[in-house]
């Protein structure tokens, strides 16, 4: 058995092209136009490629990793793998999110197929290699797929907007890319959901969908918190949480905002709300600036 493991080094969702690469790899192995030659890419035209891309190949299967934890499903796959390929050179099984397979599933699968011929290939895909049992993946070939750059995600989202006739604000697409954590799939899904809410992809619509508070709203809440108006502070925080945001998310955003003010990063792209905030809280700001000045740690 030849066990190929595609993996992603960092614990983030997919979307960096692992699944697509696995499919192309499986197709390339069986492509008839490359028979006996070095395989570079599937031709897309031969009988095997046609069957594969129409999802009718009986020799390439995509298997749900969680379902394999059921003994009967696992037995079925192992039995199927033992049979020779119907028409292709190789039998290929693509298992996405393979970290969801239990340890016993791994050992049964690997032990059962250990003695079999070299025409069976398992392409295992995971975003987290550390969750796989070391002993079972020993000797497998591994490919690392890095995260996609934010600028590339933005470019792709722009292209989709143009193709779909969607108006967009550039900062909204940049924000979606930042939140996608290098996953094109996540970015595209967010854009798709936003397109159902309105024809224009704006930053406020994006905030609303993702469930976060805008910078100006946060600053207004902080200004209230710094004022003696406790009742309105609690009321505003409750309103925000009731409307869309998780309390932990709100606290985390507030903590980041305060750190940004302390590090002087919040003066970038100053808005009216920011200007009003600093005019109203000159004293607090002076104290913060003074702290920064006398404490060199903050400059590190
Ligand atoms: Zn082909």
UniProtKB/TrEMBL annotation:
One of its GO terms (cellular component) is DNA replication factor C complex. The keyword ATP-binding applies. Pfam families: DNA_pol3_delta2, DNAX_ATPase_lid. GO terms for biological process: DNA repair; DNA-templated DNA replication. Residues 153-187 form the DNA polymerase III subunit gamma/tau helical lid domain. InterPro entries: DNA_Rep/Repair_Clamp_Loader, HLD_clamp_pol_III_gamma_tau, P-loop_NTPase. It comes from the Eukaryota. One of its GO terms (molecular function) is metal ion binding. Keywords: ATP-binding, Metal-binding, Nucleotide-binding, Zinc. Gene3D superfamilies: 1.10.8.60, P-loop containing nucleotide triphosphate hydrolases. PANTHER family: PROTEIN STICHEL-LIKE 2, REPLICATION FACTOR C / DNA POLYMERASE III GAMMA-TAU SUBUNIT. Belongs to the DnaX/STICHEL family. This is DNA polymerase III subunit gamma/tau helical lid domain-containing protein. It comes from Lactuca sativa (Garden lettuce).
């Amino acid at each position: 058995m030849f066990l190929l493991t595609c993996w992603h080094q960092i614990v983030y969702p997919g979307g960096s092209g692992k699944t697509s690469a696995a499919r192309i790899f499986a197709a390339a192995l069986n492509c008839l136009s490359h028979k006996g030659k070095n395989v570079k890419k599937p031709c897309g035209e031969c009988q095997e490629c046609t069957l594969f891309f129409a999802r009718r190949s009986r020799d390439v299967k995509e298997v749900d990793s969680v379902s394999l934890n059921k003994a009967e499903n696992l037995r079925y796959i192992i039995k199927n793998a033992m049979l020779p390929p119907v028409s292709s050179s190789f039998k290929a099984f693509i298992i996405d999110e393979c970290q969801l397979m239990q340890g016993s599933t791994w050992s049964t699968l690997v032990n059962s197929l250990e003695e079999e011929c070299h025409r069976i290939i398992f392409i295992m895909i995971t975003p987290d290699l550390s969750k796989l049992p070391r002993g079972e993946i020993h000797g497998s070939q591994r490919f690392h797929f890095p995260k996609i750059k934010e600028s590339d995600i933005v470019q792709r989202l722009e292209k989709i907007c143009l193709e779909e006739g969607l108006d967009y604000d550039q900062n909204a697409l940049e924000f979606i890319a930042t939140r996608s954590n290098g996953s094109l799939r996540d970015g595209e899904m967010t854009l798709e959901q936003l397109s159902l809410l309105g024809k224009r992809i704006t930053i406020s619509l994006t905030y609303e969908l993702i469930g976060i508070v805008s910078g100006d709203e946060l600053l207004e809440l902080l200004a209230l918190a710094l004022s003696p108006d406790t009742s309105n502070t609690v009321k505003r925080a409750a309103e925000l949480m009731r409307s869309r945001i998780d309390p932990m998310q709100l606290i985390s955003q507030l903590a980041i905002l305060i750190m940004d003010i302390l590090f002087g990063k919040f003066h970038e792209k100053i808005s009216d709300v920011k200007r009003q905030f600093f005019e109203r809280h000159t004293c607090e700001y002076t104290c913060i600036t003074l702290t920064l000045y006398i404490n060199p740690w903050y400059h590190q």
